[in-house]
């Protein structure tokens, strides 16, 4: 577990906002730090955190605690990481050493550092108020929808691809949902570089560092220092992608099998993509996007590192999925809005035992009447004809009743009316049927709304 890695109940909060930048803008932003790394004096940080008070505590991990800091002198809100006294500063030194050399909009970037009276490093990073992706996926009452989930996956892939493309490359070694933090713009940032290694895999430091990571995300092929490669991060990213798709934790003993990979990958191989979809949000508008994400995740968690895709390939796949699912969702949403605006619903009120269609106000004095029918106990009336004038309602059809109409109530009437501003329409009142000849008229009990459009009367 990396420096200040957060458990299930807590997270480091960091800030900033990040949109899916264009390729040109992203290249310009990546690697260019907007300011110099600041060395803070302890007095400023102690004052900013109210003496590292519990009220300012943001989260705790195995390496220490994180506090919210308001540094009024430079008008800055930040997060300050403080190591435990009984631990050495190796992880903190490693994080400062790596983060001081890189900058990216999809990372939780270093702002500065300080030293406490015991000469332990205090790491100052960006602050954001929305916690971790772990909390959002597993602890939120409103889980994110598909567009946000795919966008999160793209932003995480951007960050990991940036690390692997650096010179020399950086292997994070602890990619997981609790190390992905949500900024003020509700965009993902990769954090916690306490376990990260900077250098080529053949470098002495990389080859001599013991394996490390988090259970459930750790590459099973990473058993010795020489086994480490960027594909180890790809495996962890694949687990995180399954977590985003399914809404299940990497390891969850409430389920059998407890490992998300042991449960999800067989379903993916069987093309049962609906089975692994997070039931809280259901399938996306087009299940093809779910299939492509799931297949990518299955490729990333292959047991053989050489068979896994690189982060560049994973990123391009996810960007394509994001573009498609966003357009599809926007198109469907626009269609729903148009349908909703095209017809206003008026509240349905149950009618009396019979209805009467009153004479039209037109001079010709047309009256709407219905042809007489003799329904039996197993018949339900279907639609009558439509007319711009009230006229005679003819062509009533009787069809066998089935369960799709719901319960049939004797001696009840339901009218499904769509009304226009036709000048030939009269007024309808609940009295009796003209020329009903004693027919029993029945209603479908699920009818609740009447829409204002063309006139349509149904005898049920």
UniProtKB/TrEMBL annotation:
Keyword Nucleotide-binding: yes
Source organism, top-level taxon: Eukaryota
Pfam families recorded: PK_Tyr_Ser-Thr (PF07714)
Molecular-function annotations in GO: ATP binding; protein serine/threonine kinase activity
SUPFAM superfamilies noted in UniProt: Protein kinase-like (PK-like) (SSF56112)
Keyword vocabulary terms for this entry: ATP-binding, Kinase, Nucleotide-binding, Serine/threonine-protein kinase, Transferase
Annotated positions binding ATP: 82
Residue ranges of domain Protein kinase in the record: 52-322
Region (Disordered) residue spans: 362-384
Family classification: Belongs to the protein kinase superfamily.
UniProt-recorded name of the protein: Protein kinase domain-containing protein
